[in-house]
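User: Predict the full complex structure for these chains.
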Amino acid sequence: MADHTPTRAERREATARRILEAAQHEFGAHGDGATIRSIARRAGVDPSLVLQHYGSKQALFSLAVRPVSDLEGEDVPAHLAEVLDVRLRELPASTKALMRSMLTSAEAAEAMSVYLRERAARLAEAMPDDHAELRAALVVSSIMGITIARHFLDLPALEDADGDDVAALVDSWTSTAP
Amino acid sequence: MADHTPTRAERREATARRILEAAQHEFGAHGDGATIRSIARRAGVDPSLVLQHYGSKQALFSLAVRPVSDLEGEDVPAHLAEVLDVRLRELPASTKALMRSMLTSAEAAEAMSVYLRERAARLAEAMPDDHAELRAALVVSSIMGITIARHFLDLPALEDADGDDVAALVDSWTSTAP
DNA sequence: GTCTATATACCGATAGAC
DNA sequence: GTCTATCGGTATATAGAC
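Assistant: Here is the predicted structure of the four-chain assembly.
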């Protein structure tokens, strides 16, 4: 495991990974309007290599905006508060790429819609009363809006928001009966 | 006021208005990636006429995404519930164009940020406790997220949401102390 | 006043040199 | 295996014919 000259296959795989990471950052910064040329520039490779590895811009985009699944939590409201707390501080590259593109790319919009529906369904199960489905949809949509305001619109009030301050608010969303 | 042959200036103004409305719909459907050609096609005019009237695509975009100011309400929480109720059912063309473009256009992002800050400041004044600023920002951001989920992601649970159902929820956001 | 023609630039994708 | 050169397409914007 000490020193070990990388094979060509390993070097190729490492290059492919660098390209994918560059694509996530470019799509995260400019949405689906990001160009293959800019992705290649960020990755430090030739533009033709991007297509050599991933076939087309569309295929690379699909990989870059694939959301990381984080639905394994048990205590849903507590998990939700943790999600919001984390989202207020940082945003994974793939998630940022997905959110940045979801209003101008039909594929990204569908991916986000599926993700929100799954999360809302999980949350609705943990809710007591009859309006659970609607309220769960409102909660997950609100978290999305807060994430956008924090990371894409740079609302000053959310810059230094403390996780503890918002936890109680989220709790009131899920427990208070309207 | 009966019959009256329109002058050239009147016809020109009517054409300009049709172009602006077409631009709002195109920007609302495709974001800032909408093309002058598609705008002209929707308006039923030649593409060069669009630039003849508005100078550049950027200038037309700035006019199309200018949000309509609706901050004259007195009872802020009640006004807010009404806003959310209206937003769940329909979305003005200029607002749709602004929201659709705000993640891929720096100008639209800044316009939306200013709009949210103004609304949050108004709301914070009507709030009692010390976390008013943060909570007001969370509320207006949540409304934005719900609007996106309803009109751009087509969340089924929000399709037929009743305004009365959400009013109480919004009220709990503004009155419950965390 | 309105439209045809075009200048200029950049896009994704491909073919072939090395 | 990697990169140069380029094709075909489309965009904004302009100039000039009518």
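Chain A is about 70% helix and 0% strand.
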